[in-house]
Amino acid sequence: MNDLEERLRRAPRPEDAEERLRRALRPVDAPEGFTERLMSALQAREPRAVVAVVPTAARPTPRRFWMPAAMAASLLAAVLLGQYNAQLRDEARVARENAAGLAASRELMQALRVTSQKLDIAYQAVTKPPVTGAEENRS
Amino acid sequence: MNARIALCFTALLLAAPAFAEQPRGLLRLPEFPALAEKASESVVVTLDSNLLGIASRFLDASDPEQASAKKLVSSLTGIYVRSYTFDTDFAYPKADVESVRRQLSAPGWSRMVEAHSKKENTDVDVFMLVDNGKAMGLAIIASEPREFTIVNIVGSIDLEQLHEIEGKFGVPELEIESAPKKEEKKSVKKN
Description:
By secondary structure, chain A is an all-alpha fold. The radius of gyration of chain A is 59 Å and the shape is rod-shaped. The mean pLDDT of chain A is 81. Chain B is of the alpha+beta class. Chain B has one domain. Helices cover 36% and strands 30% of the residues of chain B. Chain B is built from 7 helices and 6 strands, in the order ααβααβαββββαα. Chain B has a 6-stranded antiparallel beta sheet. Chain B is globular. The relative contact order of chain B is 0.16. The C terminus of chain B is likely disordered. Chains A and B meet through helix 4 and strand 1 of A and strand 1, helix 3, helix 4, strand 2 and strand 3 of B.
């Protein structure tokens, strides 16, 4: 136990070490002409840095690829949409023409029926034997 | 003076196509607004050559009635019908009817049938426009107490075809030959 205490007493204390370090690192003024000498020495020894521009390989940017692709897709979509619209218009036009044609054919048959009815009346009036009292006047 | 003559000449030249475009046999049928207003039922058919062509394409050839109609209208350039039915006896405006009758007094038109029934108070007049022995137009004016009808068929009417569809539309036997002459028309007329 005494041995341990003795060792602890002899061991350097942290306070002492810190004090010594502070003393060693205290600010000291540079000697006269140190700065000038240092700068002249650096200028004499320091090699000039050479900056070389190394051309890097052109990286394929996604923009260059997607731009034409997007334009082509837009063009294709526009063409398809146009074709679809034209087809719709054609179908509508054919439907309209069919409806008009059917209506016209119905009108035609109706007109022919009316015509034949009236011709029937004329025919009956012409061919019927005259009624007594000259009720019918046919010419 | 010369300017006036030139103006008249120009006007005549400009008006000439308008007269030329109207086919022979086509009557100017009035709209009969008074009749249309009071009619309980009206049939107004206006089929010019274009519409007749379209209508003809839509006729069903498998149906005998429509097949006959298709054949008949192939040489026609117009069918116009104005028919009005009334719920009660109605006095037609004579002026409109007379305007049509006046057109039928033009050269070429002749009355084929004039039927009048006092009992039924019915009048039916059938007119035909004959040009070079060919029927180019047909007009019917039929007036009954509750019905008034005017029919105008324009075009080269093939009387043989009219004969063929006899009975199919109720068209009577008119004893018409294919090339009617004056004597033949007399056979239709009964005095």
